[in-house]
Amino acid sequence: MQTVNIHEAKTQLSKLIEQAVKGESFIIAKAGKPLVKVTKLDAPAPQAKKRIGFMTGQIQVPSDFDAMGKDEIANLFGVE
After folding, report:
1. Count of the separate structural domains present in the chain
2. pLDDT of 25-79, one tens digit each?
3. Are 15 and 22 within 8 A, CB to CB?
4. Domain annotation covers residue 8
5. Would residue 33 count as lying in a domain?
6. Residue 56 within a domain
7. What is the CATH number of the domain that holds 14?
């Protein structure tokens, strides 16, 4: 496993990250003393996003939906 000092890690961070992604872990040290170990993360695969319409065919909207409660609403607003 490769050990690099902080200054070298700062100047070559992109290269070191690419190595870590490929599975080549490395250690960052300060004055020869190891501080941290950098390794690849094994993150789970992203799940499929839920989309609008996932209940298509499971719900039925009545044909008079827009007129439902029309009289009650009119009474609330004082319309006769």
Report:
1. 1
2. 999 999 999 999 999 988 888 888 878 888 888 988 888 888 888 889 888 998 7
3. no
4. yes
5. yes
6. no
7. 3.40.1620.10
pTM across the whole model = 0.53
Q: Provide the 3-class DSSP secondary structure of residue 4.
A: strand
Residues in CB range of 2: below 8 A, 6 or more apart:
19, 24, 26, 27
Which residue is associated with the tokens 């044909």? 63
For residue 34, the enclosing domain spans 2-38
Alpha helices (H) in 1-80, listed in sequence order: 6-11, 13-21, 70-76
Give residues with Cβ within 8 angstroms of 39, minimum separation 6. 20, 25
What is d(CA 23, CA 32) in angstroms, rounded to the nearest whole number? 23
**79, part of any domain:** no
Task: Using alpha carbons only, give the angle 17, 39, 7 rounded to the nearest 5 degrees.
Answer: 50
Joined tokens for residue 24: 């080549």
Q: Which residue pairs, CB below 8 angstroms and at least 24 apart, start in 48-53?
A: none
